[in-house]
Amino acid sequence: xxxxxxxxxxxxMLHLDFYVDNLEEAVRQAMSYGATLAGTQYFKTSRxxxxxxxxxxCLDTDEPEE
Length: 66
Fold this sequence. Notes:
The chain is an alpha+beta fold. It is built from 1 helix and 4 strands.
């Protein structure tokens, strides 16, 4: 699959949601592998991120949104 020309600019082909127990720890771990946080976050109980090639994914918890 070709990489998008700019992170986040390619049309969505597949979106993965990973459910985690500790959101902040999961974000730190993903970032240690090269992921970045998206500029806009829509929920307190999840984080939208981009992998190093610019493909979006989310880290989610089972906590209810307040």
